[in-house]
């Protein structure tokens, strides 16, 4: 069967990277790029997530799979995919938007594969937890994120932080939500790959919701640190003094909107299960855009090559966990360490 894949938001940083990796690994796929302005080739399609009138191009080109790499706050692409029985993979949603979209699927009959892949770095963290815990019941999961301001960054992550930095969110303790705010509650953590000890602060990613509500892990937390200790301290001070509350959205976007020329991206997972503590450390030497895009590609390949039933998935549920770990570890710019 011919595979026609449309990457909506395909002109953005992550979208372009998905297209590059997917085409290099699967030259037989027909990959279309969707953007608000269209493009110069017959593979460039004009599609605007805020204008359903542009969605007819999806049917016109017999698209089998929609990859959403731009934020669709109104979930119009999701609803189009459900209505027209088209496979759908979304890598963009912050936690509140993910919860809203997931609720939409519960109210509809699903006749295609609807995949939410908005967890950290393309939704791979829960799959890696299952890989290192030998499918034992995890009692606690901690995710530590190292973020470099030198790394290339797209607009969506910066906009999310600008919009939500002053909004409380939840971690989970004893299976109960605990209200917290970004960049508070410091925890010292010794990062791998030569980074060393850093102060890490609260950070909201959809994995908090996914681990507790989907995987039923009672204790879940996420902390992050910047490559610059000064920036990490400064953001914590701004939050502690509630300066973010009085800044305009434009001013907050200026704070979070910087993008460098490229740097490593690192995250570490600490899992407590019945056998004790285990840790997985992952480094992407080409940064977060490369890793997020690779994750989206692995989910896409899994959807196309294996007969998954029509229903709603979180992306890690598509994979056999050890196979996911192996595929990531074999990619030339990714390094993984596992310790117990």
Your description of this structure?
It is built from twelve helices and 16 strands. By secondary structure, the protein is an alpha/beta fold. The chain has two domains: 4-121 and 289-320, 3-Layer(aba) Sandwich (Rossmann fold), CATH 3.40.50.720; 123-287, 2-Layer Sandwich (Dihydrodipicolinate Reductase, domain 2). It has a seven-stranded parallel sheet, with helices on both faces. β1, α1 and β2 (30-35) form a beta-alpha-beta unit. α6 (125-132) packs across α12 and α7 (155-164) packs across α10. This is Saccharopine dehydrogenase.
Key attributes of the depicted protein:
single chain, 340 residues, alpha/beta, Rossmann fold, Dihydrodipicolinate Reductase, domain 2, 2 domains, 7-stranded parallel beta sheet, 7-stranded mixed beta sheet, globular, Saccharopine dehydrogenase, NAD(P)-bd_dom_sf
The CATH superfamily title of the largest domain? Dihydrodipicolinate Reductase, domain 2
The top level CATH class name of the largest domain: Alpha Beta
Beta-strand level of the residues, as a percent range?
Answer: 25-35%
The residue-averaged pLDDT reads: 93
CATH topology of the largest domain: Dihydrodipicolinate Reductase, domain 2
User: What Rg, in angstroms, do the CA atoms define?
Assistant: 19 Å
- What structural class results from the helix and strand content? alpha/beta
The total number of structural domains is 2
Q: DSSP helix count?
A: 12
Largest sheet: 7 strands, parallel
The appropriate CATH architecture of the largest domain is 2-Layer Sandwich
């Amino acid at each position: 069967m011919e595979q026609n894949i449309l990457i909506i938001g395909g002109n953005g940083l992550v979208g372009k990277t998905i297209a590059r990796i997917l085409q290099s690994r699967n030259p037989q796929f027909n990959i279309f790029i969707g953007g608000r302005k269209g493009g110069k080739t017959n593979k460039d399609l004009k599609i605007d997530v805020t204008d359903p009138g542009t969605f007819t191009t999806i049917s016109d080109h017999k698209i089998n799979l929609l990859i959403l790499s731009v934020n669709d706050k109104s979930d119009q692409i999701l609803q189009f995919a459900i209505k027209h029985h088209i496979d759908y993979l979304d890598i963009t949603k912050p936690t509140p938007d993910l919860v809203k979209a997931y609720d939409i699927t519960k109210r509809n009959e699903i006749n295609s594969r609807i995949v939410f892949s908005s967890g950290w770095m393309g939704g791979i963290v829960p799959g890696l937890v299952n890989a290192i815990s030998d499918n034992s019941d995890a009692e606690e999961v901690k995710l530590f994120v190292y973020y470099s301001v030198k790394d290339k960054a797209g607009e969506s992550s910066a906009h999310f932080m600008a919009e939500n930095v002053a909004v409380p969110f939840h971690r989970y303790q004893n299976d109960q939500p605990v209200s917290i705010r970004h960049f508070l509650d410091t925890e010292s953590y010794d990062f791998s790959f030569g980074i060393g000890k850093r102060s890490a602060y609260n950070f909201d990613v959809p994995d908090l919701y996914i681990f507790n509500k989907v995987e039923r892990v009672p204790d879940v937390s996420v902390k992050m640190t910047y490559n610059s200790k000064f920036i990490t301290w400064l953001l914590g001070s701004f939050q502690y003094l509630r300066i973010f509350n009085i800044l305009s959205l434009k001013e907050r976007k200026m704070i979070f909107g910087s993008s460098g020329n490229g740097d490593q991206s690192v995250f570490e997972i600490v899992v407590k299960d019945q056998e004790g503590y285990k840790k997985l450390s992952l480094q992407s030497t080409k940064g977060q855009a490369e890793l997020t895009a690779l994750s989206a590609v692995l989910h896409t390949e899994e959807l196309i090559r294996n007969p998954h039933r029509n229903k709603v998935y979180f992306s890690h549920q598509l994979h056999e966990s050890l196979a996911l770990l192996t595929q990531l570890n074999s990619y030339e710019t990714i390094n993984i360490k596992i310790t117990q």
